[in-house]
Structures are given as C-alpha cells and as structure tokens.
C-alpha cells in the first residue's frame, strides 16, 4: 500500500536543496549532529545516554526535549580546556562563561560550575535561576542593552562578578546604584567593533548597525567616564560578533580592533579592577558564537582548533602592539548545549503534496508531528535548518523527501524543512530532531495554547525531568476569566 504512494527517489529529489544528498540509509545518525552517545538498539530504536526513545515517550509523553547530560558536561570541560590550553601556550589565562540564554535551568547551571565554567545571564529571571542554583555571584556575568534599574540593583547587591556595560545611561545608573548601596562593581565595556560574523562569512564595517555596545570612540569616552566613578571599576573590554560562526577570521578582525582600544586604555591607566583571582591585566572578552552541526552539511571547526586559532590571532595582535596578552574570556552557549539536545515527537499525519517544479511535478511528503514552532521557533524565526530520524524503529522503503511540520495554525510552522525519511513513516512513529539543545526551550511559547514540553536529562541509562512540562491547567490558571472548578468555593483548613 505504501509503495504505490511513495515517489521514486529521483522524483522526490527534484525539490531537495543542493546541500541535502540522497542518503544511502535514511536511518543513519550523522556523526557530529547527534550526541556522541546516540545509537540504535537491537530493535532499531534510538537510544541516547542509554535510554531508548520509546521509553522516554512512554514516561514523559511527547513532545519531550531530551538533554544528554554527559554531552553537556564534556563539551563544557572541552571548551574550558581548549581556551585554557591555548592561552597557556602564550603564558596567559582564559575564563569561560556559559551563555545561559542558550538554555538555563538550575541543574545546567550547576553542571557548568562543576565543570569549572562561569555563567552569563541577561535578565533578572536568568540571574535568579543562576543564584537559586547556587552559582557563586562572583562567577556570574550580566549582559543586556536595557538592564533595568532593579536588575542592576539586584546584581550589585548580590555581588555579581562582572556587569557588561552597554550604554552611557547605564553607566550613570551604575554610578548612582553603587553609591546608594555603597558597593564596588567591576564592569566590562561592550564594544561594537563593526564586525559581524555568521557561519563562513564576516562583514566588517566602520560601525555595525545594531543595538549592542559602544562604537570604539564611544567606548573610549565610556572608559574615561567610568574612571571618574569611585565605585565602578573598569576590568576590560567585551566584543561579541555573532553566532553559529565556523571560522577564526571574524574573531581576529574584531580582536584587532578592540585590542587597539585596549592598548590605549592600558597606557592611560583606565583599568582599575582587581579581580578575585588577582588578575592585574585587563580582560578581553570575545563573546561566544561558536558553531555546531545542525545537519550533515554543517562542518564546524572543532573547538580545540577554533580556540587555538582565535587565541593565536589575539596573541599576534598583542605582539604587534607590544602589550601582554589580556586575561581572555569566552562565552559559548550553543556549542555547549546545542548538540546535547534531541527533541522527540510523535507523528500524527502524513500527506503527499504534488509541487510543480517548472520541469514537471514532484512530490513532497508532509509529516506532521505533535509540536512545532511552540517548542522550536528557530525555523520560523531564522529559517534554521534541522534534520530528523525515525526514533521508535528503523524505517523501510526508499527515502522520501519530507518536510516535518508542527500542529500550529501557521503555514510557517516548520520543524525540519528538508529531510529524507524512510518511505514507510506512519502515524504513531516517534521522530527525533537532533541539535535542539540550544535556543529551543528558551524560545518556547504557548502559541495555540499548547503547553510547553518538559526538559528531561539523560545519563547512564537514567532519565529525570529537569524542567517540568506545562499542563493545560497551567495555561488556564493565567486566564482570569476562568473560574477554576476545584477552587470555585475555596475552603482553607480550619475554615468551614
Ligand atoms: C548570545 C550570546 C552569546 C552566546 O552565543 P552562542 O552562539 O550561543 O555561543 C555569548 N555572548 C553574548 C554577549 C551573547 O549575546
């Protein structure tokens, strides 16, 4: 029955993008795209960290966001080692901050601290999660172009290690708050270097047209102003040039521009912060943005190589200017958690759509799953590409070009735009989408009143919820026009 409806691979391939080759085996797990622990068991089911996909679906329902704990931890340690070793080869030091916005929960924050990383936050909510997780405040960095006064107060009161200053107005707020609370605060000045990088390309202009940071000239003035403030200490400079970056060149260009300012400020004696670990050299924080593989077409540079390339480039630029290597800092988010995440969905419906290619009709199969843009907004938001595999079993039949879509009332509700899936994908199958550990759960919404899925950590054959899923009751509870049935006539203990 399926065979009649399944298009020939040649025909189906007419709609495939160039980067997606017809696979020999549409059940294979592309190396680098999945967690290192991912494999298939004897029944052909996907297992991650020793836990089989059907078990996860039974226990936690679908969709479920699965996070391979060991993958996260080992990537965190690897990043720290890569940047630390690279800096040590030049007699320097490097700190690594995990960019919490990629995915933050108390457990993940603790994994980071245990792995030797610091944690970056960019809102009161992220700050409170990090503090509640027990991250020492001194190991927290605080970002944002519009940190509100109460957020700055909370950060300074709790002793956050570094605030990354983003505007002149913020500097004046910091001046007022540090005086009012009588607390010292170390800051970095965020520089808009005019370099923006994405994947293989970077663009360098005089000023990048975006909202973050100070131009180089404005950053110089900001440093002078900070120098006048009795309780605000300038610890260094910050630059973040983009995300999903595969090469060194954009970092080198940004570092070169920022180091020119750093050398000048150093000569002027503007760096006054003495860090907890006794650093006397200023900090150069080059941000994050290290790329990962979303599909087999992505070939990111291994972090060790990237770290060495970036740090060597910074060391070269320092040598040219005759200054010692600053204390380096980096802020990876995606490259720590992205590959550790796998989202499991259940297939609900499939249908074949005939598309006119201009040179004859071609078939595209739509595979609808029980989630979508509410648990992964990235395809709709950025046109992000993902891949998918059957997770409950190995499929049979010739590979069919498929588009995995969600259940939302929105035609842009795409989960995986282009993927070859086995010909016999059918309702009730589990589908796994890899590389969903970063920027999926944090961007999740309740669109169409769909509850957000749980996040489940897997390690050593065990699974546990680290962020519980929402229930319909959670959604109803926010709607003040609904009288909760159970609480219609509330009685408290001891009350009649
Ligand atoms: C988003 C962001 C990061 C992390 O980016 P990734 O692409 O997840 O590594 C780091 N630093 C700053 C300032 C950011 O805005």
UniProtKB/TrEMBL annotation:
CDD domains: PLPDE_III_DapDC
InterPro entries documented for this protein: Ala_racemase/Decarboxylase_C (IPR009006), DAP_deCOOHase_LysA (IPR002986), De-COase2_N (IPR022644), De-COase2_pyr-phos_BS (IPR022653), Orn/DAP/Arg_de-COase (IPR000183), PLP-binding_barrel (IPR029066)
The reaction(s) this protein catalyses: meso-2,6-diaminopimelate + H(+) = L-lysine + CO2
Cofactor: pyridoxal 5'-phosphate
Record PROSITE patterns: ODR_DC_2_1
Pfam families referenced in this protein's UniProt entry, alphabetically: Orn_Arg_deC_N
Enzyme class: lyase
Pathway assigned in UniProt: Amino-acid biosynthesis; L-lysine biosynthesis via DAP pathway; L-lysine from DL-2,6-diaminopimelate: step 1/1
Keywords, alphabetical: Amino-acid biosynthesis, Decarboxylase, Lyase, Lysine biosynthesis, Pyridoxal phosphate
Residue positions where N6-(pyridoxal phosphate)lysine is found in the record: 101
Subunit structure: Homodimer.
Protein name: Diaminopimelate decarboxylase
Source lineage: Bacteria, Bacillati, Actinomycetota, Actinomycetes, Micrococcales
Gene name tied to this protein: lysA
């Amino acid at each position: 029955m399926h065979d009649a409806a399944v298009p020939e691979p040649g025909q189906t391939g007419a709609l495939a993008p160039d980067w997606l080759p017809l696979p020999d085996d549409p059940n294979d797990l592309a190396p680098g795209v999945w967690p290192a622990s991912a494999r298939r068991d004897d029944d052909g089911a996907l297992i991650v960290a020793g836990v089989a996909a059907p078990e996860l679906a039974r226990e936690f329902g679908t969709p479920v966001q699965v996070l391979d704990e060991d993958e996260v931890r080992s990537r965190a340690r690897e990043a720290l080692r890569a940047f630390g070793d690279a800096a040590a080869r030049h007699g320097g030091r490097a700190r690594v901050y995990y960019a919490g916005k990629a995915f933050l929960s108390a457990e993940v924050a603790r994994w980071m601290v245990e792995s030797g990383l610091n944690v970056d936050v960019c809102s009161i909510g992220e700050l409170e999660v990090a503090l509640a997780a027990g991250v020492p405040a001194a190991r927290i960095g605080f970002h944002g172009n519009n940190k509100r006064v109460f957020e700055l107060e909370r950060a300074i009161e709790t002793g956050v290690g570094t605030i990354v200053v983003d505007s002149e107005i913020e500097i004046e707020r910091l001046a007022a708050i540090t005086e009012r609370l009588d607390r010292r605060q170390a800051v970095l000045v965020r520089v808009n270097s005019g370099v923006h990088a994405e994947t293989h390309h970077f663009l360098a202009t005089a000023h990048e047209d975006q909202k973050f940071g100070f131009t180089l000239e404005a950053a110089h003035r900001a440093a002078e102003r900070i120098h006048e403030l009795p309780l605000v200490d300038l610890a260094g400079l910050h630059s973040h040039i983009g995300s999903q970056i595969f090469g060194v060149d954009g970092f080198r260009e940004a570092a070169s521009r920022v180091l020119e300012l750093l050398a000048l400020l150093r000569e002027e004696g503007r760096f006054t912060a003495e860090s907890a670990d006794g650093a006397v050299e200023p900090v150069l924080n080059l941000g994050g943005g290290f790329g990962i593989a979303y599909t087999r077409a992505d070939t990111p540079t291994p972090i060790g190589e990237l770290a060495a390339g970036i740090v060597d480039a910074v060391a070269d630029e320092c040598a040219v200017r005759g200054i010692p290597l600053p204390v380096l800092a980096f802020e990876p988010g995606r490259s720590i958690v992205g590959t550790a995440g796998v989202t499991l969905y259940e297939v609900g419906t499939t249908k074949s759509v005939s598309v006119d290619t201009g040179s004859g009709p071609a078939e595209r199969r739509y595979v609808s799953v029980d989630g979508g843009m509410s648990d992964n907004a990235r395809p709709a938001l950025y046109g992000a590409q993902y891949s998918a595999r059957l997770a409950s079993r190995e499929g049979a039949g010739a590979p069919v070009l498929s588009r995995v879509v969600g259940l939302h009332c929105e035609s842009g509700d795409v989960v995986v735009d282009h993927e070859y899936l086995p010909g016999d994908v059918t309702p009730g199958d589990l589908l796994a989408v890899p590389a969903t550990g970063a920027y999926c759960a944090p961007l999740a919404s309740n669109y169409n009143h769909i509850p957000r899925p749980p996040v489940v950590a897997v390690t050593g054959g065990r699974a546990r919820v680290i962020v519980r899923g929402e229930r319909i009751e959670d959604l109803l509870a926010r709607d003040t026009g609904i009288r909760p049935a159970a609480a219609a006539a509330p009685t408290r203990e001891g009350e009649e």
